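Many introductory courses stop at the sequence. We go one step further.
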Amino acid sequence: MTSIKKVIDPKENISLKSAQETVGGYVERVICRDDTILLVNEEGLLEGLPVNEEASAIAGQMIVGNVIHFAKGCGKDWN
């Protein structure tokens, strides 16, 4: 089972440590078709993590594992 942590408050900051704990490893940023940002596990495919269907639909590509999804205008520290 995969999850998405949704960040909708522009003032909410996610530290690197917190992001790594959420995604379960090294963090990779994915810019989505709608200009939102996903933080994903950089080695998720190598680790055989399950497909995250909701995140994949948002990104327009296959995404695996748990993710953090920043709404538009959020996650400026990750730009």
